[in-house]
Amino acid sequence: MNTAPLQGIKVVDFTEVQSGPSCTQMLAWLGADVIKIERPGVGDATRKELQFNPDLPSYYFLQLNSDKKSLTLDAKTPDGKAILTKLIKEADIFVENLHPGAMDKLGFSWEAVHALNPRCIYGTIKGFPLSSKYANLKAYEPIAQVTAAAASTTGPYEGPDNIPTQSGAALGDSNTGMHLLIGLLAALCQREKTGEGVYVYQSMHNACLNLCRIKTRDQLTLDKIGYLTQFPQYPNGKFGDCVPRSGNIEGGGVLGWTYKCKPSGPMDSAEDANNYVYVILQRGAKDFELACQAMGFEDWLTNPDFNTADARDRHKQEIYARIGAWCADKTKYEVTEILGKAGVPVGPVISTKELMSDQSLYDGNTLVKINQGGEIGEFVTVGCPFTLSNYQPTYGPAPELGGNTEEVLTALGYTQEEINSFAANGTTKPVEAPAAAAAK
Ligand SMILES: CC(C)(COP(=O)(O)OP(=O)(O)OC[C@H]1O[C@@H](n2cnc3c(N)ncnc32)[C@H](O)[C@@H]1OP(=O)(O)O)[C@@H](O)C(=O)NCCC(=O)NCCS
Predict the structure, then answer these.
(1) What is the enclosing helix (H) or strand (E) of 341?
(2) Which residues are catalytic?
(3) Cβ proximity of 155 and 165 under 8 Å
């Protein structure tokens, strides 16, 4: 039995770069038939971004477009529009993330697609919500991070590096793709009842802001009392009128910090920037007792400066200093082992090199290897991040530019003659400039 949740779902994928493709990548891994529309001769911009070899598609493209089909199509030509119209008439989901207004200009707005196929769900990604004064701006990852209060609250809160800082995680890009995915899956469930497709509008701003909810929590608290107990500035430092950058605080009510450890091996040399561990002291008395016992800090249990969570918030600098000294002569793994055994929330800081070398993560979903074939061969990517008990995605190669054009057009009912004419008139292949053609 085929247990792929989206088996039989047809997706017309008019997305590019990262946000949209990360969404349609998940649709493909869940079993949908995803046809990626790409400009003839050009394709998704990421094909040629950050390449390791100028003649091969980049890992950027490969990691976001596995298991899709590629149809090269110029949707500005009459034939291109006719082909896209046919595809939409058979589609369950149409997804796009072009710049604001581009789809309307091409003639495939939500209204137009809905009129062509009322069952088709329309997913769209833009930078900002429609209500925003920035709704017409183009957007990339950092634009989402800086405008959704992610950057203003990230990074060192003092010193020369106290500037708005980007997260290494793709809060504006892949995170937006995952948010759109939720919307599309909800729309599919809804269509079961209504029989009709809906418009799912997902902005990068909203996706990023959704992950910054706790920063709005902090702003509300700051407005009420003028300080935030979880920040190192509390109780003696100054707070302004907005949430400061959070350095390495945990973010909730528990007391967490990053501590330097001694080097631990070839992946963690003295020069390595990642000889660190993150340690959290929970608020509960029992949890605190376990942590104190594990580190030999039993004196804290009877010291009123430390034996309540509120007191610890007021003395966090002393706590950072003492745990820091305790960690300094241990590796991040030794600290993790000692504290982990005692039930203290702890984790080593892991580099990308170390992460991708951890064989325990090649469990079928966490990190996966895809065989692209040819000169590229096998490469590693991050798999479907959740596990279904009765379904395991398979992870196949990304398509060549236009690699499925004939197949898709044939399935739509076009004859070989028509397919040839689409290639010759620039609809599915670039038209050669006369000089270049003559030179042959
Ligand atoms: C990513 C972004 C900034 C790129 O903007 P861009 O360089 O203008 O590129 P776009 O692909 O959007 O549009 C370029 C043109 O290609 C056209 N185009 C794209 N695919 C096409 C196709 N298959 N056939 C014909 N034309 C096509 C578009 O219609 C557009 O034409 P226009 O400028 O005449 O309107 C912009 O698409 C954007 O803001 N998207 C929404 C937010 C987003 O997802 N950002 C990316 C995060 S990873």
Answers:
(1) helix 332-341
(2) 173
(3) yes
Instruction: Give the separation between CA 430 and CA 427, rounded to whole angstroms.
Output: 7
Last residue of one domain, picked from the residues 344, 369, 387: 344
Sign of the dihedral through C-alpha 127, 54, 400, 106: positive
Which domain, by its residues, includes 66?
A: 10-211+358-424
Residue 367 Cα to ligand 1 middle (Å): 30
Shared domain for 138 and 167, answered yes or no, is yes
Taking alpha carbons only, the member of 84, 116, 125, 114 closest to residue 196 is 114
Q: How many structural domains does the chain have?
A: 2
162 and 298 part of one domain: no
Tell me the backbone φ, ψ of residue 37, rounded to 5 degrees.
-90, 125
Instruction: Give pLDDT tens digits for 14-34.
Output: 999 999 999 999 999 999 999
Distance CA 280, CA 254 (A): 7
Residue nearest to atom 10 of ligand 1 (CA): 98
Instruction: Give the mutation target among 98, 125, 180, 206 for probing the ligand 1 site: most ligand atoms within 8 A of CB.
Output: 98
Asked whether residue 151 falls in the same domain as residue 283, the answer is no
Cβ(125) – ligand 1 distance below 6 Å: yes
Q: How far apart are CA 264 and CA 194, in angstroms?
A: 59
Q: Whose CA is nearest to atom 17 of ligand 1?
A: 102
Distance 98 CA to ligand 1 centre (A): 4
Indicate if ligand 1 lies below 6 Å from the C-beta of 37: yes
Q: What pTM did the predictor assign?
A: 0.96
Rounded to 5°, the CA angle 362-368-374 comes to: 130
Q: Are residues 176 and 273 in the same domain?
A: no
Q: Which of 283, 316, 344 is the last residue of a domain?
A: 344
Diameter over CA atoms, the chain: 90
Please give the Cα distance from 434 to 308 (Å, whole number).
Answer: 80
pLDDT at 194: 98
104 with 43, same domain: the answer is yes
Residue nearest to ligand 1 atom 18, measured at CA: 39
CA of 101 to the centre of ligand 1 (A): 9
How high is the pLDDT of residue 271? 61
Q: Are residues 148 and 179 in the same domain?
A: yes
Please report the atom of ligand 1 found closest to the CA of residue 39. Answer: 23
The yes-or-no verdict on residue 436 having pLDDT over 60 is no
Q: 268: which DSSP letter?
A: B
Which CATH number is 182's domain given? 3.40.50.10540
CATH number at 273 reads 3.30.1540.10
Q: Are residues 182 and 278 in the same domain?
A: no
Domain identity same for 79 and 190: yes
Place of tokens 């395991």: 392
